[in-house]
């Protein structure tokens, strides 16, 4: 089997660390044996941010991004099935981007010294780190190539329906999302995400395929990719329009860093705020006011959440209130991506809040 170094010589660059030039000659094939391995072994074959151009019958490519978060393996599992199905010739070309294969090695979202890859893409406030530089180069390259569509594949750490996220309500975006799921969310933050960067030049979607590695998520993702590489156009997709529901993400719920937290039933020492067990069952359900998210250690403990809208305004008081030691929803709202992972809560957020919207009348 080919080592990363052998593959690097294939693409004409001189050394593995020569990342800034790797896209001048994007490799046209995957290293031998790579389709036999799990995400934890990919680091033996490719580096972080390796882009591969797999030629197909239709030249205009589908762009697929996997493993931006190293513990979200459904993208690789589904891509393996797709590529094994089309060993001779793909119906459509694919640019496949490997994300954080180093973090995938230890089944972690990211390594301690790494930024979140999916916050480093060109956006409103561009980050100034090596990852962001690489993301800028990949974006510039793909903007010239103008893919047919862009798909970024993720998993959730909490229980969620499989859903698609889009940054634009233009028809090709909604059609692309509809091919994956009837549950579609529209969002314009966080800044620096892949589908947001690519939305400037092609229909792009972030798909969330449930918990990492589950069979139904892999199957749904594989079917979606199969459909996409056979599809001639995203301008009209028969039979999908009537079911779809678009939800608009309007805010992010974070836990204040100074508030110590734990999950009900898991805490072994006193904390300021205990998050209700099974809170993630609320994902994508309309919650009534009074629905409890958790309990404080004391009535005088501060509100543990900060809710911010898309432009960063603090709107916590509109959506949460303390009732004694109970922290409750203040007005009806639909949460998404509630996670029960303390690490994910600290690194990212507890959840997002959404309202329904009509895609035809945004
Ligand atoms: Zn992710």
Question: Secondary-structure blueprint of this entry?
Answer:
Layout: H1 4-10, E1 51-54, E2 56-66, H2 74-85, E3 90-98, H3 101-105, H4 130-145, E4 149-156, E5 163-166, H5 171-180, E6 183-186, H6 194-198, E7 204-211, H7 215-230, E8 245-255, E9 261-263, E10 273-275, E11 292-296, E12 305-309, H8 316-319, E13 320-323, E14 326-329, E15 334-336, H9 342-347, E16 351-357
Parallel strand pairs: 2-3, 2-4, 4-7, 5-6, 6-8, 9-10
Antiparallel strand pairs: 1-3, 5-7, 8-12, 8-16, 10-11, 11-14, 13-14, 15-16
Helix pairs in contact: 2-7
Bound molecules: zinc ion (ZN).
Zinc ion is lined by residues 68-69, 72, 154.
Describe this structure in words.
This is M14 family metallopeptidase. It comes from Marinicella sediminis. InterPro entries: AstE_AspA_cat. The protein is α/β, with parallel strands linked by helices and 362 residues long. The protein folds into two domains: 4-243, 3-Layer(aba) Sandwich (Aminopeptidase), CATH 3.40.630; 249-357, no CATH class. Helix content is 22%, strand content 26%. The chain contains nine helices and 16 strands. The chain has helices at 4-10, 74-85, 101-105, 130-145, 171-180, 194-198, 215-230, 316-319, 342-347; strands at 51-54, 56-66, 90-98, 149-156, 163-166, 183-186, 204-211, 245-255, 261-263, 273-275, 292-296, 305-309, 320-323, 326-329, 334-336, 351-357. The strands form two sheets. Strands 1, 2, 3, 4, 5, 6, 7, 8, 12, 15 and 16 form an eleven-stranded mixed β-sheet that branches. Strands 9-10-11-14-13 form a five-stranded mixed β-sheet. Helix 2 packs across helix 7. The longest helix has 16 residues, at 130-145. The protein starts with a helix and ends in a 5-residue tail after the last strand. Residues 1-21 have low confidence and may be disordered. The structure holds zinc ion.
């Amino acid at each position: 089997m080919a080592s990363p170094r052998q593959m690097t010589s294939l693409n004409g660059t001189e050394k593995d660390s020569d990342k800034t030039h790797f896209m001048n000659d994007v490799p046209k094939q995957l290293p031998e044996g790579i389709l036999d391995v799990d995400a934890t072994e990919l680091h033996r074959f490719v580096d972080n941010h390796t882009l591969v151009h797999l030629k197909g019958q239709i030249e205009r490519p589908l762009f697929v991004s996997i493993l931006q978060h190293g513990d979200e393996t459904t993208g690789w599992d589904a891509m393996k099935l797709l590529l094994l199905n089309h060993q001779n010739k793909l119906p459509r070309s694919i640019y496949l981007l490997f994300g954080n294969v180093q973090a995938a090695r230890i089944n972690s979202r990211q390594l301690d010294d790494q930024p979140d890859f999916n916050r480093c893409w060109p956006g409103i406030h561009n980050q100034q780190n090596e990852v962001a530089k690489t993301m800028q180069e990949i974006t510039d390259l793909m903007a010239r190539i103008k893919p047919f569509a862009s798909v970024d594949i993720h998993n959730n750490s909490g229980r969620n329906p499989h859903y698609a996220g889009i940054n634009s309500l233009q028809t090709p975006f909604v059609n692309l999302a509809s091919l994956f799921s009837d549950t579609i969310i529209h969002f314009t933050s966080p800044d620096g995400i892949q589908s947001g960067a690519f939305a400037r030049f092609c229909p792009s979607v972030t798909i969330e395929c449930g918990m990492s590695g589950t069979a139904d998520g892999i199957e749904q993702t594989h079917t979606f990719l199969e459909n996409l590489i056979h599809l001639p156009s995203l301008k009209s997709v028969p039979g999908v329009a009537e079911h779809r529901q678009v939800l608009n993400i309007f805010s992010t719920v974070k836990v204040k860093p100074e508030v110590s937290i734990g999950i009900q039933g898991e805490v072994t020492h006193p904390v300021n705020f205990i998050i209700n067990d099974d809170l993630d069952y609320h994902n994508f359900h309309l919650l009534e006011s009074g629905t409890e998210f958790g309990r404080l250690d004391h009535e005088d403990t501060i509100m543990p959440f900060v809710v911010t809208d898309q432009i960063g305004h603090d709107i916590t008081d509109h959506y949460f209130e303390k009732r004694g030691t109970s922290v409750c929803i203040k007005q009806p709202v639909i949460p998404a991506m509630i996670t029960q992972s303390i690490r994910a809560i600290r690194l990212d957020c507890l959840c997002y809040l959404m309202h329904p919207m009509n895609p035809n009348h945004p």
